[in-house]
Amino acid sequence: MNQGVNMQNRVLSSEINKLVGKTVTMCGWVHSRRDHGKLVFIDLRDRKGLTQVVFIPCSNAHKLAHELRTEYVLKIEGVINKRPEKMINNKIISGKVELEAKEMVILNTSDTPPFEINKDTVNVDEETRLKYRYLDLRTERMANNIRMRHKVIQFIREYLTNKEDFIEIQTPILSKSTPEGARDYLVPSRMHAGKFFALPQSPQQYKQLLMVAGFEKYFQIAPCFRDEDARGDRSPGEFYQLDLEMSFVEQNDILELIEKLYTSLVKTLFPNHKITTSPWPRLKYDDAMKKYNCDKPDLRKDKNDKKELAFCWIIDFPLFQKQTKDDFFHGAGNKMAPSHHMFTAPKKEDVKLLDTDPLKARSYQHDLVLNGVEIGGGSIRIHDPKIQEKVFDLIGFTPKQKAQFAHLLKAFEFGVPPHGGIAPGLDRFIRLLQGEDAIKEIIAFPLTGDVRDPLMDSPTEVSQKQLDEVHIEVKFKKTK
Ligand code: ASP
Fold it and tell me: Over the stretch 309-334, which tens digit does the pLDDT of each residue have?
């Protein structure tokens, strides 16, 4: 193979419509080829799109042209020619021109891919797609999904930082179990035998501590880890959310910020989408249940229209719900579980109900719903340690369980500002924007439905030495 090839002056498919008559160097992959014997055509793919390359007999490049196969990696030097009017192809980015190859270096050959890269892979089986994800990501649809994901995240970062004075802060991944109601991923500690870190289900407690620390406006594109079975609208294992928290705000401030941010995002990045109703409807939980019999109604006029975006807020949730047998809090010994999480504040006028009829108390929880999918939730938080204690008692926490939150209650003794936030999920949101049916279509390296990675082949067994170091004895017998 050719190493150390000079790539100077390389141009991209997106640039060459303007370079008629120029001699240029282009690099990329063979997307498709049409060998007419004398004339050979290929579509060369780079990160911006396709370029038609023509090999004319007698050029040096033509001598190699018959050897080309799809996905070979090439460096081609040649001249940009204008296409005749009739041959203009508006489907490709460089469709007004073509490259007439003069010299060519085959930088690398390729085996025949397990599926066709110049077609959508939605119908290829999941195992094959994920095992060869790097090839799947070469397809136009997948590459576009990943690039749009980047743009959405970039937009959010830019907006919150430059327009709204937020700062992004990374919080620990090796953390302590955050009781968001799901099962934790545990990481054994080598230094502290028998003890475990937990991967964060969300940065909930850290972001509240950052409010105590005085940052006032925090966000993070935050990875969250929950050991739950796969669900239609959540990728198994891990997902990303726009985690956000603000001090000295009321619920309305949070709702308005997100509404402004997402409206601006849609207008800028998805100009062909239409937000059905602005301002977004705000429905009380009780009313939504009465009217739609669910707390995530699809308010689109045409339920099949993927370009229609019907956002709405659900507010005035009950603070508690009855505990069920499968509830995370079951075993805490009482009959109530938080509807959202245990840091959510009761509505001011309902605080007194905590002593008399707590199941009737409403909270400052807000859920963001888009086209019938819950895409985020948050709340104004409790900032009065006495109310926090009371909520713990109502859930039925034992003194030992309460002690798990001692750090938060302690922090709240040092001047905690009133605060609240939200954490819209990014995967679900981007999936809807991109009109994809499955969340894995907008994640570069997702896990399978049964929580494996066929590409890296994880999870795997580890060596006895590794296990010994972290003081773990595996009960399960190896299956060969
Ligand atoms: N931590 C919550 C969640 O992940 C969101 C929030 O209350 O801000 O659902």
Answer: 999 999 999 999 887 766 555 555 55
pLDDT in tens, 60-98: 999 999 999 999 999 999 999 999 999 999 999 999 999
From 435, 414, 430, 394, select the one nearest 242 (Cα to Cα): 430
Whether omega before 459 lies within 30 degrees of 0, making that bond cis, reads yes
What is the DSSP secondary-structure string of 367-382? Answer: EEEETTEEEEEEEEBP
The amino acid at 180: E
Ligand 1, closest atom to CA 207?
8
Whether residue 377 has its Cβ less than 6 Å from ligand 1: yes
Which residues 6+ apart lie within 8 Å of 317 measured at CB?
285, 295, 339, 340, 362, 363, 365, 367
Cα 189 to middle of ligand 1, angstroms: 27
Q: What are phi and psi of 42, to 5 degrees?
A: -135, 155
Which of 432, 440, 449 is closest to 368 using CA atoms? 432
CA of 195 to the centre of ligand 1 (A): 26
Q: Note the pLDDT of residue 475.
A: 87
> Mean pLDDT across the stretch 395-400?
86
Is the CB of 376 within 6 Å of ligand 1? no
**Cis? peptide before 203, omega within 30° of 0:** no
From the alpha carbon of 244, which atom of ligand 1 is closest? Answer: 8
What is the token pair recorded at 334?
Answer: 């009482």
Q: Which atom of ligand 1 is nearest to the CA of 243?
A: 8
Residue 480 scores a pLDDT above 80: no
Count Cβ atoms below 10 Å from residue 195 Cβ, excluding itself. Answer: 11
Ligand 1 in reach of 211 Cβ (< 6 A): no
Distance, in Å, from the CA atom of 183 to the CA atom of 164, rounded to the nearest integer, reads: 34
**What are the structure tokens assigned to 92, written together?**
């490709």
* 29 φψ region: left (φ > 0), alpha (ψ -120 to 50), beta (else): beta
Residue of the CA atom closest to atom 4 of ligand 1:
202
- What pTM did the predictor assign? 0.94
Query: Which DSSP category does 113 fall into?
Result: P
Q: Is the CB of 378 under 6 A from ligand 1?
A: yes
Q: What are phi and psi of 255, to 5 degrees?
A: -60, -40
